[in-house]
Amino acid sequence: LGYAALCDASPRLIYLAATGFGNDGPYAQMAGLDIIAQAMSGLMSITGEPGAPPVKVGVPIADLTCALYATIAVLAALRARDRDGRGQFVDVSLFESAVSFAVWEAGRYFATGEVPKPSGSAHQAIAPYQAVRSADGWFTFGANSQAHWLRCCAALGLERLANDPRFATNDYRMANRNALIAEIEAVTTTESSAHWTERLSAAGIPCGPIQTFDRVFGDPHLAARGYFVDAPHPTLGPIRQLGSPLRLSETPPRIERAGPLLGADSADVLRRLGVGQDELERLARDGVVAVPA
Fold first, then answer.
1. Is residue 149 part of a domain?
2. Which of 71, 79, 221, 280 is the 20 to 30 Å CA partner of 147?
């Protein structure tokens, strides 16, 4: 069944197709995966260090973003239906979802024809704005204004760099970024990430440590905001999982259970469709549907 047939039966239907490359175009019949979308969208060509092999983003960002865009599109279609009473076909792809991240790259390429290249953790237009080494790991900070740059110099004990002509403006700092980071890391590697992020934060500079996930999943800020949820599971008991990043004052999201067992809702869905108990038992016995005991 496709949208055309279903729409004839129910003109209010909102039908979502989330695919690798969309419903039409030369690639429409190609199989899609997150890594394919990351590769063909250009994301892998700019991720990683200069001169190193292409790197995919560490999470399935095309998959996740396509799902978010699909949600936004369906909500927009629902609002449109509230106005005119009609449903519509919603077409969202992994490929276009991944390309949508290329806001800097598109602007620069369309204006100059310059092909973007990888720059590690560094910003394409601001310096310093990247990860730097410390005595016990790495941390990040960003001096995204001249005032921030001057405060960075003071917080890092590098006041002399504020008067160095190589770093006088952001354009000069970008042109001499390797030398700049070498100067900064000569100092930051003498103390811990916590030491430097405390000093930078006190100076009003955005900064933070690069955390491994054991630190993230024990992060006191996330815990204080109730981000981690222990959801009940029918056979395993409480299972800790991520909560919702959405905060609504009147209708907060709730996670009332962990992922259901295979077929947990089959019987209820089929009963709502008019399937009787005898037929339901036959379908389960024949392996047509899974119905947990």
1. yes
2. 221
What is the C-alpha separation between 39 and 44, in angstroms, rounded?
5
With a CB cutoff of 8 Å and minimum separation 6, the contacts of 162 are: 149, 150, 153, 154
Q: In the numeric block, which tokens belong to residue 225? A: 């905001």
CA Rg value for the chain = 26
- In whole angstroms, give the CA distance from residue 211 to residue 67: 26
pLDDT digits (tens, 9 = 90+) for 73-84: 999 999 999 999
Final residue in a domain of this structure, among 112, 137, 154: 112
Copy the structure tokens of residue 259. 């992922």
Active site residues: 63
Q: What tokens appear for 22 in the block?
A: 């969309």
Structure tokens at 95: 């490929």
Question: Residue 50 burial by CB count (10 A; 0-12/13-18/19+): exposed, middle or buried?
Answer: exposed
Chain position carrying tokens 């029918």: 234
Q: How many domains does the chain have?
A: 3
Tens of pLDDT, residue by residue over 182-207, are 999 999 999 999 999 999 999 999 99
138-142: strand order across its sheet: 129-133, 138-142, 207-209
Note the helical H segments in 156-204. Answer: 159-162, 170-175, 177-188, 193-202
Q: Which two tokens stand for residue 108?
A: 């620069």
Would you tell me the crossing angle of helices 146-155 and 193-202 to the nearest 10 degrees?
Answer: 130
